[in-house]
């Protein structure tokens, strides 16, 4: 009796054969896929990503450049608007304001004294300026008045008022008044005052 030997293919040979048979279709599939993706990127994607701006269709790159141009134009217009709306940044306006601050009139000084008086007391007209004189030649200002209607705090309010006046940038050489509190005869108190100071670079008021 003759023995029959059946030769079976090894697993390695079978796997190699399968890979060889599937390599062609796989390469064909990848080539077709890449071709479709390339055509989509070149033809379909620009069509669906374009936007119409001012009657002109723009792609992503053009839109980016257009945005940068708009931002540059907007920045220029905002700077121009700031110059027009805020004249304090204009050199000519700043120079005029500096000249005005450097050359105070009698009305300017009197207004500043009233503002200082209003800041130191919550009682209206607690500080009465009864006399105000302004020497144009020397820049000397003489002030007389009285502190009323604040009870026993009249000297405290007066001291705060003098401090406010002394801190004004245009004031120099202030002679502080004598602080005193007197009975006004109606059960209340008042503190009369008189002091002198000088203003810097004063000019006479315009007529």
Structural commentary:
Helices cover 50% and strands 20% of the residues. The termini are far apart. Residues 202-207 have low confidence and may be disordered. The protein has helices at 11-49, 60-85, 91-102, 106-119, 154-166, and strands spanning 51-53, 56-58, 127-135, 140-147, 171-175, 182-183, 189-199. The protein is rod-shaped. The strands form two sheets. Strands 3, 4, 5, 6 and 7 form a five-stranded antiparallel beta sheet that branches. It is α+β, with helices and mostly antiparallel strands.
Please write out the topology.
Layout: H1 11-49, E1 51-53, E2 56-58, H2 60-85, H3 91-102, H4 106-119, E3 127-135, E4 140-147, H5 154-166, E5 171-175, E6 182-183, E7 189-199
Antiparallel strand pairs: 1-2, 3-4, 4-7, 5-7, 6-7
Average predicted local confidence, pLDDT: 78
| Topology as a string of helices (H) and strands (E) | HEEHHHEEHEEE
Envelope shape? rod-shaped
Our measurement of the CA-to-CA distance between the termini, rounded to an integer number of angstroms, reads 148 Å
Low-confidence stretches: 202-207
- CATH homologous superfamily annotation of the largest domain: General secretion pathway protein M, EpsM
CATH architecture of the largest domain: 2-Layer Sandwich
Count of discrete domains? 2
Report on the biggest sheet: 5 strands, antiparallel
* Structural class category: alpha+beta
CATH topology of the largest domain: Gyrase A, domain 2
Please work out how many helical segments DSSP would assign. 5
Question: Which CATH class of the largest domain?
Answer: Alpha Beta
What is the rounded Rg? 45 Å
Helical percent range? 40-55%
Strand composition percent = 15-25%
